[in-house]
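assembly run, all chains below
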Amino acid sequence: MGGQGIERREILRILSAAAAVGQFPGFCKWSFACGHLGNAVAQIRPAVYRPLFFTVPEYALLDCLTDIIIPRDASPGAREAGVSEFIDLMVSRDPELQRDFRRGLEWLEAHSRATHAKLFLKLTAEQQIALLEPLAYKVKSRKGEERGREFFALLREYTVMGFYTSEIGLKQLDFPGLKFYAESPACPHVDDPEHLHLPPPQG
Amino acid sequence: MPKQTYDAIVIGTGAGGGMAIKVLCEAGLKVCALNSGRRLDPEKDFRNHRMPWELKYRGFGDPKTHPRSGTDIVGESEYVEGAWETGPGCTTAPGTKWISARCSAVGGRTNFWGRSSTRFGDIDFRACSLDGHDVDWPVTYEEIAPYYARVEKMIGVASTVQNRPSNPDGFYLPPMNFRCFDHILQKGAEKVGVPYLPDRIAQLTVAHEGHPACHYCGNCTSGCEVGAFFSTPFFLLPSAEASGNLELWTNAVARNILVDENGQAAGVAYIDRTTRQEHQVYGRTVVVAASCIETARILLNSKSRHWPTGIANSSGQLGRNLCDHAYGISASGYLPQLLGQPSFPDNVSDSSIAWMPRWQNLQNPHEERFIRGYSLYPDGGCWEYPAYEDNIEGFGSSFKREMKRRYPTPVSIMTQIPTLRSDKNYVDIDPVAKDSLGIPLPRIHFRWGENELKMWEHAKKASADVLHAAGGVLEYVAETPENPGYSQHETGTCRMGNDPKKFVTNRFGQTHDVHNLYVCDASVFLNCTDKPTTLSILAFALRTSEYLVEQVRRTAS
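ok done. output:
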């Protein structure tokens, strides 16, 4: 049984070979956020990201919204993880997403103008949050804002997709996978199967 | 050039075809295997060890080919490209929804399967004697058990001896360990009288027969680069190739079976996918193992003077009796006990490692409002993608905190329900539609029956009960199973039985009408039972292949 077949070091070689990554030209923060690409990428990093699908004002609004959804606080947020670049890439490949995102951003701008006579980006942080909360929480929802709520759900979905598949995002979850374990990881609380006496939660 | 005649032509290299290839080659038969797609190079083609940010679309796939509104995409992903068929594999009759997932790479779906490997038992083979529905299988458990044992030793299955009346025990490697949520759910299941045990998983917990032990990276269904779980290319093809008796032709799409002047099988007509040219290959026997629907398609497309409705179809049963699992997550939620706890490598298999094996209708086949029974497969904990985001409202720092707090807590329960055989569920050939190579497409007729929908209702409640009893919060209950075809556990279309008027194949998987034509996949199964199909495909294919060798030797001597 043991000792046959592929050696452990062979497996490790395969694992490390698989970690070699391709580069995706045109992405700055996102590639940059993948630290292991090293300095070579930092040098080719374009100063300003040129969106594939969104107009420059749309993209600025999108970037701001992702940053409100997952802000930088004690840890980095959506902006550091390049989430809006990810969304731009995904949207650029799917006409239905293009329609939904464009209409959604338009709706939000119109809503902002109707409420405050200003572009969303020109509002104070408090005003921005006050506009978004009725779209985000059921108890705060208002009649007539259904399209806004739908858009917010879509936007948050893609923000989460972009953030929690980035190195920054998965590090925040302390993603434990894709590692090499000698045996299948076992629950460490053998004396407490119901898990009623765990140490106090973190965070 | 004189035409070469092989001892056997095997169509398909999945579990059934792979086993046939191994057995026939090792017995000294000259085998030509036809595979409809290419051969994968695990080191290049399997990207299972990539982090999501190392993939262009983060593992979600190119939205151009995987649009958001696209439904029911099974198979093709960014982690493995060019292994699955992307064109339509079938058409559907009005009212039928069918998800067609065809892996054309060498090894077929064994490259990416879920690895759950439990034996069928007499509760399945003799189900008709118990509850009166349909017919018994033409085999008994006693007859098949030795083949199961040999297959388990060949592929390595991790589990425990459980003494469940619904599930005969086998030969097992050490089981995988339970994780926190397993223990919590197990306690809950205990309270409501539901068994919660290690599933039977063909994933190597120790090195086995020359294959390395699993390293629990948790991305199995994207393919395993080191072959630490059973797949045809890693486990069955090497010895066949070493025998010098195998020619494996890739991108060879079987179109129909050729017949001689007596209507017996003479070979296979296939289309080379790269040149789109049709060719013929000749053999003394033909083994069809293209998976249930494709097998039926090839045989139904094999019309001749002798076989006006498809080869070996004198019974009229070819393509009939399609079964599938009513399948899907029945309930999900989270375990508040684990809120805010440190993350833990819960995902060790990209799938379930525990099960709640059938507990219904065991004392008495009619104790429930439905006949037969189903099994549940729980999963949860820290996976790569935090899919629970849907259940958290809001945005901002509080949302971020809650995402982290919830990370170890999600749990879901998957249900696997057998459909009963029905005259309404079958495959025929679409009179019009053809695939890109010009081969007529199969047409699926399939609807859930009353029995399986009653089971779904039962399973929903049982799943919710287990979750509640475990102290969990129930967040989602699925009203219906996934669309048919989703489980990829389809069976039927060439059922085995002793009566040539009622069954396509005999008890050995040999067609009644054409004695040198064999079927080596789940097509021969009487129904799908509540168990997954692969282990049984391997066991039955082993038996069929050895029977075939015996027949060939008998004719030769």
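Chain B touches chain A through 80 residues (CB under 8 Å).

Chain B has a mean pLDDT of 95.

not gonna interpret more than that til we talk
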